[in-house]
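User: Some background: our group keeps a shared notebook of sequences we're curious about, and every so often someone picks one and asks for a predicted structure to add to the entry. Today it's my turn. The entry only has the sequence so far, pasted here. Could you supply the structure so I can complete it?
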Amino acid sequence: MIFLLTSGILTTLILTLSWFFIRRQGRSDRAPAQSASTILETKESAEKITYWRISGIPEDCDKDKLIDFLRKHDNSLKIDLSDLSLFPGCYSQKQVGVLRTKGIPESFQRIKPEGDYVSISGLSTGGVTIDRNFYNLTPLNRPEGGNSIVDVVAVTGLAGHAFGSWRNRESGKMWLQDFLPNDIKNIRVLTYGYNSNLIGNTVDDTLQDQRSNLFIQLLNVRNTAEVAILTMIIP
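Assistant: Of course. Here's the predicted structure to add to the notebook entry:
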């Protein structure tokens, strides 16, 4: 299903994983979507790599400064510049970071995929927060020139994960972050996370709740009162 939100010349395009992955599966480095339990919690995940989202990063903070800050919080943290990506935030002027670690750092041990996070004071007013659930919207690229014409928002299916389900288990590449912005210019790529865990045959929140929250998040990102919504069904 594709939801198309239009505000002036700006268009928000939400792609569910089924349609777009089918179109891209001809490239060997794209893999089918994988569940959160497979990606995040099994020993088969690529090199036991874990991805973390860091929110609340000041606009003027660069990678070096953020890594120094994190190492002061946990001196056992073994990361370098290639393990960190910084993107403009979609809710405020602050940046969002995606951090890659091998294994789980000691200070991150209590952060669970289901929704826990840690807050670290300093660096900015209110500090920064670190999670691994990627709930709500997370930006995954820095549009050229700082402007984008189209927003591509990926929504995983039930029992999926907003980041892990789009990642190739063998190569470790994350398609939305590593390839899509290079294939299509002038777009902003975001992934939408929600509690998709299956409990028996049910989900904690109803699909209607998830749908409503998604639209609220999109309206907050667009920050406009004049938004037209067009829904199209892809067979």
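Suggested note for the entry: The helical segments are 17-24, 36-41, 63-73, 175-178, 180-183, 207-222. The two ends are 8 Å apart (CA to CA).
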